[in-house]
Design a protein that fits this description.
Elements: E1 9-14, H1 18-29, E2 34-37, E3 50-51, E4 57-58, E5 66-68, H2 71-78, E6 83-85, E7 90-94, E8 97-101, H3 105-112, H4 118-128, H5 138-163, H6 172-175, E9 193-197, H7 201-209, E10 214-217, H8 222-225, E11 231-236, H9 240-243, E12 253-263, E13 274-276, E14 285-288, H10 289-293, E15 300-308, E16 315-316, H11 320-335, E17 339-341, H12 353-368
Bound molecules: flavin-adenine dinucleotide and uridine-5'-diphosphate (UDP).
The site of flavin-adenine dinucleotide has 34 residues, from α1 and α12.
């Protein structure tokens, strides 16, 4: 029998989300023996999906839509899944209206009862925007592109709910995720590859982890192994402050409560995958999964996201003081021998799935160099 206290593996990987699973696969393919652990009872991290008790494929940790401009990332994942073409569309409820977000020509025309052409929309935005330089905060970004009225209607309330902070307290990168358009493009993302794994994220991870060099141990917390890790090298994808026992104080992460609901007698709950609620309600958005997955089912399953300070860490909170605290942990990480820190929580970066895959592939190249 394996004694986990012995160095039976080349690598211990902490966390079986995108970061840990991609590293596990890459290292195993290079002939390494990998122990991959996760404290949860499933792999896939926050991108995990499962069929609920009513037979609908849901994302327990909120909607996950894959999009990337990286051919390398797309090709890597394509080894483990077929894809369903899916372009995400989002409407925002403003007053009684449901309007496209990102703000586009339709948004402006419907909101203000106008019929502007693309050029006229651009001229309108130019007339209301408040040029700011530098674009330091998310408020700068939004006011610089759409001005105060659209900012208040679409961004300020949503952001306050989502982060518990004003737009002016968040780094520019947060709001910069949302473009502004003067045409009728109503897609949430503009990337060249926009797909959902055809049989779900779970199946994709299952295939990624199906390699003789990978041993997966679920319900296993790193704390149980850290005194005597069973490998010389560790890939750590959990929160970086926890790795160092919060010695510089806790890094703030934003959490969410997911309120899942099944509606047995409703075939379609809403027009599009996600509806955002920037101004009303305590939740930020409602997602109906069948839009994402294309599943046919007589009923439907939806999720409401309620942001909160406490709970599982889901988002790093991008603002200068948090970045400064992270840097202190990153310095410790630099000095730490035999540990590679990869992932959204370990690198304290507001990364999408594709960015995590790219970062993990790069980290493995360095480990194997
Ligand atoms: P995680 O998925 O968080 O995995 C880390 C794993 O480490 C977890 O499973 C955790 O249990 C485990 N772990 C932590 N500490 C320990 C420990 N001590 N011992 C053992 N295991 C441990 N990205 C997109 O590209 N498109 C989207 O539409 C999208 N939507 C999102 C919606 C929400 C609500 C959220 C929260 C995120 C969304 N993302 C989206 C981002 C995406 O979830 C992340 O980029 C990606 O899942 C991060 O992967 P990761 O492996 O770094 O982290
Ligand atoms: N945002 C907003 N209104 C919206 C959508 C987004 O104010 O209708 C802002 C908000 O601060 C949010 C950020 O833009 O946190 C990024 O939005 P995104 O949809 O990318 O967030 P995620 O899907 O990562 O939660």
């Amino acid at each position: 029998m394996n004694n986990p206290a012995r160095k039976n593996y080349d690598h211990l990987i902490v966390g079986a989300g995108f970061a840990g699973s991609v590293c596990a696969r890459m290292l195993a393919e290079a002939g390494r023996k990998v122990l991959l652990i996760d404290r949860r009872d499933h792999f896939g991290g926050n991108a995990y999906d499962r069929v609920d008790e009513h037979g609908v494929l849901i994302h327990p940790y909120g909607p996950h839509i894959f999009h990337t401009n990286s051919k390398r990332v797309f090709e890597f994942l394509s080894r483990f899944t077929d894809w369903r073409f899916y372009e995400h569309r989002v409407l925002a409820q403003v007053g009684e209206q449901l309007l496209p977000i990102p703000i586009n020509r339709t948004t402006i025309n419907k909101l203000y009862g106008l019929s502007l052409t693309g050029d006229e929309v651009q001229a309108y935005l130019d007339s209301v925007r408040q040029p700011r330089s530098p674009l330091a905060t998310s408020e700068d970004v939004v006011l610089n592109s759409v001005g105060p009225d659209l900012c208040d209607k679409f961004f300020r309330g949503y952001t306050k709910k989502q982060w518990g902070l004003d737009l002016s307290e968040l780094s520019a990168g947060v709001a910069a995720r949302i473009p502004t358009r003067n045409d009728d493009d109503d897609r949430y993302f503009g990337d060249s590859f926009q797909f959902i794994p055809a049989a779900g994220y779970g199946r994709m991870f299952e295939r990624m982890l199906d390699h003789p060099g990978i041993e997966l141990r679920l319900n296993c917390d790193f704390r149980e192994l850290r005194a005597e890790p069973p490998a010389e090298h560790i890939v750590y994808t959990g929160p970086i402050d926890a790795f160092f026992d919060h010695c510089h104080g806790p890094l703030p992460y934003r959490s969410l409560r997911f309120d899942h609901q099944h509606l047995a007698d409703v075939e379609q709950f809403q027009q599009v995958g996600t509806v955002n609620y920037p101004n009303d309600h305590d939740y930020t958005r409602i997602t109906e999964f069948k839009h994402l997955t294309g599943q046919q089912h007589a009923g439907t399953s939806i999720v409401r996201e309620y942001p909160q300070a406490e709970g599982d860490p889901y988002y790093p909170i991008p603002r200068p003081e948090n970045e400064a605290l992270y840097k202190r942990y990153a310095e410790l990480a630099e000095q730490q021998q035999g540990v590679t820190f990869v992932g959204r929580l370990a690198q304290y970066r507001y990364y999408n799935m594709d960015q995590i895959v790219a970062t993990a592939l790069k980290a493995c190249e360095e480990i194997l160099a």
